[in-house]
Structure prediction request, 454 residues.
Amino acid sequence: MSAIRLVTPIPGPRSQQLAQRRAAALPRGIHLGTPMYVARAQGAVLEDVDGNRFLDFAGGIGCLNVGHNAPAVVAAIHEQVDRHMHTCFQVSPYESYVRLAERLNQLTPGNFPKKTILVNTGAEAIENAVKIARSHTGRPGVIAFEDAFHGRTMLALSLTSKTHPYKAGFEPFPGDVYRVPFAYCYRCSYSLKYPECGVYCAHHLEDTFKRVVAAESVAAVIAEPVLGEGGFVAPPPEFFRIVAEICRRHGILFIADEVQTGFGRTGALFACERYGIEPDLICTAKSLGGGLPIAAVTGRAEIMDAPGPGGLGGTFAGNPVACAAALAVLDTFDRDRLSERANAIGDRFSRRAREWQQAFPMIGDVRGLGAMQALELVRSRDTREPADEEVKQITRYCYEHGLIVINAGSYNNVIRLLVPLTIPDEQFEEGLDVLAAGLQAVLGAKESVVVGRS
Prediction:
């Protein structure tokens, strides 16, 4: 039986009514990727207020690796709500915060003593990681990468790269933030080609210390192991090992932003494992809570202990209901081997996507790691001019035909895959069929090429 069921045009009448209320009640700065309003969700399926069912390949922007309303997560939430919902850990602490910190200390990369603080959002984790790094090193500077996204709060926004819609008009930003090119091989900042380039962009960090900011003034280098909003760019395997070694040489901390890559998305519990690196600090959020807001900073114990009592915390940080959900998420990964499932999903997508790339010259690049996969669309493979309008048309075709997908990239020309890792194969293929039809409808194809299931 098809998971997709459309009983009205999209948006339906009740969604249209809610859109009118939204326009009157909410500021225009809150962007909506689709015009339908959700009534309920389960697994990888959304149902809107008009009774239409959609397959969800966006996963709440990567927050639902275990799926919507995962039974174990829901059960843990109900059990905790019956006990208490909030006391503020800094006032009246509780065991689940400690237990979750212990689990994260054990699970994150690095065979050394670790400690963890819990907060509410990815941006909050990033800001606390920078505070901790500055406190430990006594240095002010932070180096981030082009095409990075680290959040919308002011310090996180300073670390974020993309100007519109995120940064423009919100200046000035906190200082002592510096930016270097990422290993975006499809759009190399140096017009070089991997592997002949020798991963020049990674070694360029040393030049930055000579021409931009002194190494002894830099507290940390922060990076997403795979770019998220920047376009799902997975760097060459040696890139981060080179960067981490340069950091060690200069006493600079390496902060891994695993907010979107973490918890199985890339085929390992953490993407750092795929690159063989052990960050000094690692930031997690999104799928940690299985749909509830929770985030964490985990790092070397001596670094985490740098801020004094009261220097870290927050009223709702490590909320007990969110802690219960997060513990259930970690149990689900142990039980259901979802990291392995991510690799299977990625392989399925990649096979189909390579066929699409042969059919559609406007698909310039197919890339990703595990289930964190993407298509970059260009108007010409020679000029690589971004095809952002076509991506907008494809995402619209998809939601009008029962599939939710979202874009990414500094040029808004990337279609990204953030499907729940629990999706059944039949539903996954059904969603890919809709995406293939959307590519066909918007881009056209060679008549001899079939873009359905192989």
About this structure: The chain has two domains: 13-56+338-443, 73-336. The domain at 73-336 is CATH 3.40.640.10 (Aspartate Aminotransferase; domain 2). Residues 446-450 have pLDDT under 50 and may be disordered. The first strand starts at residue 38 and ends at 42.
